[in-house]
Specification:
Chain B: One of its GO terms (biological process) is DNA-templated transcription initiation. The complex is a heterodimer of chains A (386) and B (195). Chain A is an alpha+beta fold. Chain A has 8 helices and 15 strands. Chain B is 73% helix and 0% strand. Chain B is built from 8 helices and no strands. In chain B, helix 6 packs across helix 8. The chains are: A alpha+beta (386), B mainly alpha (195).
């Protein structure tokens, strides 16, 4: 009886081809006939092949280890390190040495980069929206429109002339102390005899203090009482103690609408002296069809704003407001009816300070120069300080 | 030791390694280590872990090549990368068993790495069992079998080494050892398989 070990000897001999031909054929026959023997043979083959491939695996591992050790040693030499053979990195990928904080920051940035980008763009967007929005809102506040020019005079621009004039005054000798000319100026006129005046809203817009100056160089301090932005109207009151009153006003205010083609004129301060201009009423509506304004064909200049607009019979029919740049000689004036409405509503609100408007008109019938002579003392420069 | 780098193409690499050219193996190993090392370091691994994973990956490749069963459908570099990536992700998953899932963000590439890895795993298990069986076999059987099968020593050498009177004696001893090893190996292997 053969032991299993004997069979193994037989199998090995068979595999190595050491069996004689008859013995081999005999074994092959028995292998195909006897399933137990075939199983035993399969087990033997399995075992030996596993063993030898296991051996190969071990040797391959040794090889790889050796290669790695080579690499490490190479790296160690390269670093000229003393003993840190195992601590070295591989040669081709130099390690980046960064501090702990920096690493944290880097990780944070990696993780939250997208979020921060979004936050930043939202912030930028918000800032610009706010700025533009504010700008737009401010623009809305002013009745200025494209092509429409407010006729308030920027005094800085003419400071040079002023200086020349001051020099001239100094040479004369009766030298007044140098006068702060204010930042802007416009024209205003008396509303009542007890110290109310009318001018354009845009003249006193943003004013810290308002000074009015008559033809006789008398100055009074005034304060805005009421402003109507939509109709570009402002009512001022003189608050100086030594002010005694204007005296009786020569003109009256027209409550209705003036006729087209009416001869009209204005007095104003586009420069340091009073300037007269005339023309006619050319349309019943103002800029872009605004029904609160007239269109007039009077050549007006910066500084004319707030000036009175009178018709032939000396009725006050409007207040000069602005002009259109792209149209020849098209100026605009607020209708006096709106001024009247404003005064009426103010009187109704405040019974203590009744507005006693002039009822009679002393200008009717007199010639233009005579009218102007009577009128000129009631038209003032409005100087605005910011 | 800056070796003259005789550069091989992929095909030459495979052919050389199949022939058993250790220089080619070393060169291949050097060539792709930085890539895998970089990948592992980028994915919260250490230098040593990178080397480990890389060796395992190269081993898979090497055994396939020696087997002659490698069917390379892409570059060796891609293949090694895929294998090492799978290996590393698996290790990571084991390491962070409690910490969330791991995403494999990279596009799936058909490299055959998956199948090869499964095969390699099976082989690993087999070898582990074999190693264990050898451990249990005891002396002198273990040394005898290791000497013959693992270290490729001849029977004559072993006869002298172990002090047998002649080679036949040694051979007989070897067969007896084989029988015992077979019992240990198969009972163990089948047991594990039944899991």
């Amino acid at each position: 009886m053969m032991t299993e070990a004997d069979y193994y000897a037989l199998f090995e001999a068979y595999q190595h081809g050491e069996l004689a031909a008859p013995a081999r054929t005999d074994l092959e026959r028995r292998l195909s006939a006897d399933p137990v023997l075939a199983q035993r043979y399969a087990d033997f083959t399995d075992l030996t092949s596993t063993l030898s491939s296991y051996g190969q695996r071990l040797s391959a591992r040794r090889k790889l280890r050796a290669i790695q050790a080579d690499l490490d040693a190479e790296q160690a030499v390269k670093l000229a390190a003393d003993d840190e053979v195992l601590e070295t990195g591989n040669p081709q990928m130099p390690q980046l040495h960064i501090s702990r904080t920096e690493q944290k920051l880097r990780e944070f940035w990696q993780g939250h980069r997208a979020t921060m980008m979004v936050a930043a763009s939202v912030a930028v967007l918000a800032v610009f929206t706010t700025l533009l929005g504010l700008e737009w809102w401010k623009a809305r506040q002013q009745p200025t429109q494209y092509g429409y020019t407010m006729l308030r005079r920027d005094v800085d621009r003419i400071k040079r002339t002023q200086r020349v004039m001051n020099k001239a005054i100094n040479q004369i000798g009766a030298a007044p102390a140098s006068i702060n000319p204010g930042k802007f100026s416009g024209t205003g006129f008396a509303l009542t005899s007890d110290g109310y005046l009318v001018t354009s809203y845009h003249v006193i817009q943003g004013a810290d203090s308002v000074l009015i100056e008559g033809r006789d160089r008398r100055r009074f301090r005034a304060e805005p009482v009421f402003s109507d932005v939509a109709h570009d109207l402002a009512i001022l009151r003189i608050k100086d103690r030594n002010f005694t009153g204007f005296g009786r006003l020569p003109y009256s205010f027209k409550r209705g609408t003036a006729e087209l083609g009416e001869k009209i004129y204005t007095l104003g301060y586009p420069r340091e002296d009073q300037v007269y201009n005339d023309g006619s009423l050319s349309a019943r509506t103002g800029f872009e069809g605004d029904s609160a304004f007239y269109q007039i064909s009077i050549p007006v200049n910066p500084g004319n704003s707030g000036g009175p607009l009178l018709d032939d019979r000396g009725n006050l029919i409007g207040i000069i407001s602005g002009r259109q740049m792209d149209v020849q000689s098209a100026a605009f004036a607020t209708k006096s009816s709106y001024l009247m409405k404003l005064v009426d509503s103010l009187s109704a609100m405040n019974t203590l300070q009744a507005y006693s408007l002039p009822r009679t008109n002393q200008l009717a019938g007199s010639s233009r120069p005579q009218q102007i002579r009577k009128l000129q003392d009631y038209v003032f420069v409005v100087k605005v300080y910011e | 030791m800056a070796k003259a780098t005789a550069s091989y193409t992929d095909d030459e690499f495979v052919a050389a390694i199949r022939r058993g050219d250790d220089r080619a193996l070393a060169q291949l190993y050097r060539l792709h280590l930085p890539m895998v090392s970089h990948y592992v370091l980028q994915n919260s691994g250490t230098e040593d872990e990178a080397k480990d994973v890389y060796q395992e990956g190269v081993m898979v490749f090497y055994e396939k090549v020696r087997d002659g069963s490698l069917e390379l459908s892409c570059q060796i570099k891609t293949y090694l990368y895929a294998v090492c990536r799978r290996l590393w992700l698996k290790r990571l998953a084991e390491k962070t068993r409690f910490g969330g899932r791991l995403d494999d963000h990279e596009p799936y590439l058909e490299t055959g790495a998956e199948a090869d890895l499964l095969e390699a795993e099976e082989r690993d298990r087999r070898f582990a069992t074999m190693g264990e069986a050898l451990e249990r076999l005891g002396e002198p059987c273990r040394s005898l079998l290791e000497g013959f099968y693992l270290l490729d020593k001849s029977m004559q050498q072993l006869t002298a080494e172990f002090g047998y009177t002649n080679a036949d004696n040694a051979k007989n001893q070897k067969y007896k050892c084989l029988v015992r090893l077979k019992k240990l190996f198969f009972t163990h292997y089948k047991e594990e398989e039944s899991f």
